Structures are given as structure tokens and as C-alpha cells.
Amino acid sequence: MNAFRLLADLTHLLSIIILLVKIRTTKSCAGISLKTQDLYVLVFISRYLDLFTRPLSLYNTPFKLVFLATSITIVYYMRYHKVVKQTYNKDSDTFKHYFLILPCAVLAFFINPKFTFIEVLWSFSIYLEAVAILPQLVLLQSSSNIDNLTGNYVFMLGAYRALYLLNWIYRFFAEDVVRWIPWIAGLVQTALYADFFYYYIKSWRNNERLKLPE
């Protein structure tokens, strides 16, 4: 355990709390991509099947259960809650997210640490998480009015991945641990957030409402 990983996990948790607060308090999921949330459910289910095969951890297990439960809860609200589902703008959530799944599955099948069922699923979850934010970013680009909670949620998600990348760099120098899959996936994912980070920080410094260029 190191400070980068702890901060990353807490930032990830905070991002989910922000999204749940938005949905529960405003009864709205406006500006949130259901397609990205669907992908995150698939990511967490694929990654955390090891709950049934590995010893329980006082640190990891609670986080895994929380991330699974909250991701499924968010999708439930957006699909089935009688008020929240009416605020979902399907016409703006246009990214073909299912095109991301097959390439990630192929990569996981051929490029994984150990060719076992759990390791292939873990690799798949890493590859898919790297690109799962794309539908959300595309949706934000088409939005003329990005509320603060949505902007903060996406920023925290990006910060979580950047911190996890620092965690792997730290482990390389401090523990001589090399895991190329999360390194490369983390670089790709952080790069996808770069444009958003720029406009988020710019709007914060100028005290302006966040807006992304189309």
C-alpha cells in the first residue's frame, strides 16, 4: 500500500458518491451517459469475480463490493427509476459503446499475465475501463450546459486513473513491480481525459460554467 493507491481508491469512491448524490438529490441523470455506466458494470463484474476465488482482504474486499453495488445501483436508477429515467437524454448519448467490447475482449484473450479465466477477465476489465469514459466525454461535448456535479464526477474519475498510474510508477521504483497492462491502459485512459482536464481547470480558474468544444 502506498499513498498514491490510497488516494486513487478514495478519489474513485468520491466520484461515485458525487454521481449518486446528483441522482438521489436532484432526481436527475441529465448529462450522464448510460452507456458509460453500462460499461463500468461490465468492468467491475469482470474484475471482481475473484471475490469467489481469492482470500478476503480487509482493504480490497469492501472497495470491490462497494464499486459493484454502486455501479449496478446507478444503472438501475437510470433505467428503471420512474423519475430519474425520464431525465436521461438518449438522443445525445450516441456513442456506439458496444464496438468497444469486442476489441477489448480480443486483446484480453491474447495479451494477459497468465492464461487463466480470471486473468483474462482481469485484463479485459483493464482494457475496457481505459475506454469506458468515451461515451461520457462524447455526451459532454454535445451538452451546452454541464452542471457542476457532472463535471466534478468526470474530473474525479480522471484523477483516480492518473493517481493509479502514479501508483504503478511508484511500485516500479520502490518494489521493482512491472505490470505493463495497467501501465499502458492507464496512459491511454489518462490521455483521453487530457482535453477535459484542460477545460475543467480553465472554467474553475475563470469561475465559468464548464463547456467542452464540439
From TrEMBL:
Keywords for this protein: Endoplasmic reticulum, ER-Golgi transport, Membrane, Protein transport, Receptor, Signal, Transmembrane, Transmembrane helix, Transport
Main location: endoplasmic reticulum
Residues spanning the membrane: 61-78, 98-115, 121-140, 152-174, 180-201
Signal peptide: 1-28
InterPro entries with a match to the protein in the record: ER_ret_rcpt
Membrane topology of this protein: Multi-pass membrane protein
GO cellular component, one term: endoplasmic reticulum membrane
Molecular-function annotations in GO: ER retention sequence binding
Biological process (GO), any one: protein retention in ER lumen
Keyword Amino-acid biosynthesis assigned: no
The family this protein is said to belong to: Belongs to the ERD2 family.
Organism: Dioscorea cayennensis subsp. rotundata
Protein name, UniProt field: ER lumen protein-retaining receptor
Domain of life: Eukaryota
Compartments, record wording: Endoplasmic reticulum membrane
